[in-house]
Design goal:
By secondary structure, the chain is an alpha+beta fold. The chain has 3 helices and 7 strands.
Length: 167
């Protein structure tokens, strides 16, 4: 099953400001990354060859053009064969921030993408776009609201997560 999944937001900011958001995506306090979602972590600074991911999603950086775009190739979960990327496109009225997944979901990836990962991904990416809007304007005009399905999936996953012992 071929997947092309795109999220984008027109931001009233120049490409340099939006580019800095992309460049900081894997930093500890990334303004682009929403609270409440697993942080994007890499084994080194953002650049080609860096590996990491967020939650159960694993990938490596296969393309990086500072201030413009970063593309990652999936290595997990099983059945995700493709890439995801953050990129920008300058316009007269600002800059479009875009995230694109282009992959083939094969084997177990077909079911996991459809039932679990797509709804979570869509909710998280709209939260990412809210963070970008907040970073450049100080507010979000129409904040993302999670669907009942997303809230239910998150509740189930949280209940199945191993509990951490207090130190």
């Amino acid at each position: 099953m071929h997947v092309l999944n795109t999220h984008e937001r027109m931001l009233p900011a120049d490409e340099n400001e939006v580019g800095r958001l992309i460049d900081s995506v894997a930093t500890p306090n990334a303004p682009l990354w929403p609270r409440g979602w697993p942080k994007l972590r890499l084994d080194r600074d953002l650049g080609v060859g860096a590996t990491g991911g967020h939650g159960p999603i694993r990938y490596s950086v296969v393309e990086y053009e500072p201030g413009r775009r970063v593309r990652f190739r999936f290595s997990a979960p099983k059945g995700f064969d493709g890439t995801h990327a953050f990129e920008l496109e300058p316009h007269d009225s600002g800059t479009v921030l875009r995230h694109v997944i282009e992959m083939d979901a094969v084997g177990p990836g077909r079911l996991s993408w459809t039932l679990v990962f797509r709804p979570l991904h869509d909710a998280m990416l709209e939260d990412v776009m809210d963070c970008a809007e907040r970073a450049v304007t100080g507010a979000v005009l129409a904040p993302n609201r999670w669907s009942l399905a997303v809230r239910a999936i998150r509740r189930v996953l949280r209940s199945r997560a191993p509990r951490r012992k207090a130190a």
